[in-house]
Write a structure and sequence with these properties.
44% of the residues lie in helices and 13% in strands. The protein is α+β, with helices and mostly antiparallel strands.
Length: 269
């Protein structure tokens, strides 16, 4: 059984040291820390350093007070690379907690909320199970990538580099151009309905959606670019493969080639 504390000591330490190292000392005021039963809030004067935004704080670093950061690193208080925010995200993802929340920050203060509630401890148990069965271990960046996939967030380049190994491990699946947590995970946590929703419609239903669009536009015919919009999560090749199956099954016919081709219900051409 996993035992996960509400607040990870390393996360709290990184958050405090970041607030001290990267605050804007041109502004008067102190760093405030407020603890609640299920969250901790840290507020430091001044907004984000130049070039840092809510969108890139996980992957980009720009220390405002380099000397303070260097001294802290030499004392072993912070990571030498200066990736304190990155480390906080990694540790929270590893414990299946909400990522550090900077959404209340503005030009005058950085407002960080750390949530202590574990979202789903079964997720961590599932990853341990996969690790034992397939003899793989997950790195910190893998946990961040899995969390982003679970929350259906856009993956930055560093996260995309983790995808091949996560697919191979069976932790995630690719549905068209979309990535989701694997069906084994949703079966493990008894949420098969969520898996069905995230995976989308089955192949026969997708065929019927395409057929309906083609029938609705039988007079002028349907162009391939319009058919791709019917199944936006599918790649170009996947839509082509479904159309080829429908043609073999005499559901549809095509006139023309390449981008000039138009699709019609079978029997109309």
């Amino acid at each position: 059984m996993l035992t996960i504390p509400s607040f990870n000591e390393l996360v709290i330490r990184e958050a405090i040291l970041n607030a001290v190292s990267h605050r804007d000392y041109r502004h008067a005021g102190s760093v405030f820390i407020k603890q609640y039963p299920a969250k901790i809030e840290l507020v430091s004067p001044g907004g984000f350093p130049p070039g840092i935004t809510l969108e890139n704080i996980l992957w980009k670093q720009h220390p405002r007070n380099r000397r303070i950061a260097e001294v802290s690193a030499k004392c072993g208080m912070v990571e030498r690379s200066g990736h304190g925010a990155n480390r906080m995200f990694q540790l929270c993802a590893r414990e299946s907690k909400q990522p550090p929340d900077y959404s209340r920050s503005d030009d005058y203060e950085v407002f960080l909320t750390l949530n202590g509630k574990v979202k789903d401890p079964r997720f961590l148990t599932f990853l341990e199970k996969i690790g034992r069965e397939r003899q793989v271990s997950f790195e910190a960046t893998d946990f961040i990538t899995l969390d982003l996939i679970n929350r259906e967030q856009k993956l930055p380049q560093l996260a995309k580099e983790c995808v091949p190994s996560l697919l191979k491990s069976g932790a995630v699946e690719r549905i068209g151009r979309k990535l989701i947590l694997s069906g084994k995970f949703y079966e493990f946590v008894d949420k098969k309905g969520v898996y069905t929703r995230k995976r989308g419609l089955d192949r026969e239903t997708n065929k019927q959606l395409l057929l309906k669009h083609i029938k609705d536009n039988r007079k002028q015919g349907s162009q391939f670019r319009d058919l791709r919009e019917v199944l936006p999560s599918f790649s170009r090749d996947q839509v082509k493969k479904i159309l080829a199956e429908m043609k073999r099954e005499k559901m549809i016919s095509v006139i023309g080639k390449t981008s000039a081709a138009r699709w019609y219900p079978h029997g109309m051409v």
